[in-house]
Amino acid sequence: MFQKGSLASRRVLMLPALILHRLSAIEPSLRMISRILKIYGTLILPKITETLGFIGAGRMATALARGCVQSGLVEAGRVLAVDPSQAAMQAFAEEIPNSRAASNHGELLDGAQIIVLAVKPQIMPGVLEAISEHLGSGHLVVSIAAGVTLSTLAAALPTGTRLVRVMPNTPCLVGLGASCYSCGAAASEGDSRQVQKILESVGGAYEVEEDKLDAVTGLSGSGPAFVYRMIETMAEGGVAGGLTQELALKLAAQTARGAAEMVLSTGSSPAELRQQVTSPGGTTQAGLETLENLSGPDAFRAAVEAATQRSKELGR
């Protein structure tokens, strides 16, 4: 098609090198695209054909149901819920239009195959007693109650009940959760995959041994509160430097969000990323040194103030 040695033929031969050059220049964007495609891939997996039944229709149950429906994982008509609180049931129905309400536990278990126990730990014994006689081999029971172990669940339910224990966290409410789960002895690989898909509809999901769930609770379960406190104190440092409360809070929150995304999307460790933004004698170094020398909430506030002061010094 092209004469050998012509300008057009040389340009064609150069295309691979040009493409590689362009790709290297947008590598971070490609990593982001890869993550988006991975998320998209989870959305086009085969749907869950079983009906989901939520015992408890509170905020976490609503978030899980909404995530499953909005991601296309399950149809709204295959979502059932039961809760003694009419206000909770009304809110659930408003968030998940076309979902269905069950009048009691027996009705819910008759109509659903994946049963999500979304109740407070202190009322779990009564719930387990109520559902025990209705459970069969076709049911998968998923508990999101903090501190209720697989052995506790198994002892209260029929022998051989397929069980999965989940530790979600509150960012699931905005689709950015970090959840871990452990499977009971009777649960199958297929059960594990089902729970994984449900949890991934509201964030990240990771299977761990049950003895690791206490550490998960301390890190991702309680961790959001620690980050909120960090954001709060960083914003206080911004206010001390002259920013308005509103702007300081937005900057602190967006900074935390962006930094977290850098860790997740770049493949670099926090230490590596920290080094990339820390110039010798610069504002970040001043803030980090202050952070290392202090402890508690005051550390983040003081770090922001130290970086602010260093920026003023560098501008003189």
Descriptive notes:
This protein is an alpha/beta fold. It folds into three domains: 36 residues, no CATH class; 177 residues, NAD(P)-binding Rossmann-like Domain (Rossmann fold, 3-Layer(aba) Sandwich), CATH 3.40.50; 92 residues, Orthogonal Bundle (ProC C-terminal domain-like fold), CATH 1.10.3730.10. The chain is built from 14 helices and eight strands. It has an eight-stranded mixed sheet, sandwiched between helices. The N terminus is likely disordered.
- Which word captures the global form? elongated
What is the CATH superfamily of the largest domain? NAD(P)-binding Rossmann-like Domain
**CATH-assigned fold name of the largest domain:** Rossmann fold
Number of domains: 3
Q: How many helices does DSSP assign?
A: 14
Brief sketch in words of this structure:
The protein is α/β, with parallel strands linked by helices and 316 residues long. The protein is 56% helix and 11% strand. Mean pLDDT is 86; it is low at 1-31.
Spell out the key features of this protein.
316 residues, alpha/beta, ProC C-terminal domain-like fold, 3 domains, eight-stranded mixed sheet, 14 helices
